[in-house]
Amino acid sequence: MTSLNRSREERVLQPVIQVRKVIIRNDHGENLVGILHETGSKELVIVCHGLESSKDRIPMVTLATVLAKEGVSAYRFDFAGNGCGHGLEMNSYLTGCEGGNAVLLYASKYNDVRTVVNISGRFNLERGIEGRLGKDFLERIKRDGFIDVKNRKGKFKYRVTEESLTDRLTTDTPAACALIRQDCRVLTVHGSMDRIVPMEDAFEFDRIISNHKLHIVEGADHEYTSHQDQLAEIVLDFLRLDIPPAGGADEHSLFYSRKDGSVRSRL
Question: Where on the tree of life does the source sit, at the highest rank (predicted)?
Answer without folding.
Answer: Eukaryota
